[in-house]
From TrEMBL:
Gene that produces this protein: pilM
Species this protein is from: Geomonas limicola
Annotated InterPro entries: ATPase_NBD, FtsA/MreB, PilM, SHS2_FtsA
Any single GO BP term: cell division
Domain SHS2: 9-175
Protein known as: Pilus assembly protein PilM
UniProt-listed NCBIfam families: pilM
Pfam families the record matches: PilM_2
Amino acid sequence: MLFAKNKDIVGVDIGSSAVKLVQLRELKGGWQLQNVGVLPLPPEAIVDNTLMDSSSIVETVKKLLLSLDVKVKDAACSISGNAVIIRKISLPVMPAEELEDQIHWEAEQYIPFDINDVNVDFEILFPDEQDLSKMNVLLVASKKDIINDYLTVFAEAGLKLVVVDVDAFAVQSAYESNYGAESEVVALVNLGASIMNLNVVRDGVSLFTRDVQLGGSLYTEEIQKQFGIDTQQAEVKKVTAGRVEDPRLAEVLQRVNETVAMEMRRSLDFYNSTAGEDRISKVYLSGGGAKTSQLVETVQQKLGMPVELLNPFLRVAVNEKEFDTVFLDEIAPVMAVAVGLATRRVGDK
């Protein structure tokens, strides 16, 4: 979204715990899977969206590209949390070209940084229903030094970064590519290792976004604390939780499930309190944390509405001779951001 011929792009989601890669081929009326892979990152390689260990990230991306034999050089990535500022603002109705000239001046009023230190982008959403002489505009800004770090990492890995998106909007792209732009209001909640992205959408328009500093690593930390084990052992326990009978582990996970569900409820209640008739009717969960045993059920009970895991491969054509569909089902919620990025094209707004 912050940078943006119609040719394949490789979507590379650099999360705080792993690098996820997806390449899609655009077909008439849909997409076909060309490449998919995941590799873990060393602990602390990324902290609070800062690339702390660039060389490890570069090596991990290179390893993925090599193992999957990726030939495409154009890439898309995304950012979230304190790396990006998203504001919905109301402005007098004007053509996009005119807004292009004015957006930096408008952005200065909403962004707590020097305007020269940020990249600014926008999308005109819809007219203001209260005042038809105005329009709602989505304003997105990211600090240039953060974008430059990503540009460097991708260049060193042999890729050209042509699109920088936002995690919440990448998940929205994955959702709309597979479920369509529904007229009902849905909440897309992406629970990564260290951050939770919330995006409320209707008819292809983002109505509300929020990033919360809470993620799947909370489960790992709690397991470590309760069982007195290291991070790696805790990760194994977390991943196998649904398949192994362990009442003590189930209790630990459920406590964190309650915390995560309450945080979702707080954010979505905040949206609903000002939404009027546009209240949320359904929630889709994605991200590594979404697969935690009993989380879907806990969130559904806390929110009092249908909740399901987002499948970013739902309507993606998959050659079963080339890809293990059981593996794809297993990793599906984790790949939502990468799939959304892979649907982007050079020059996209």
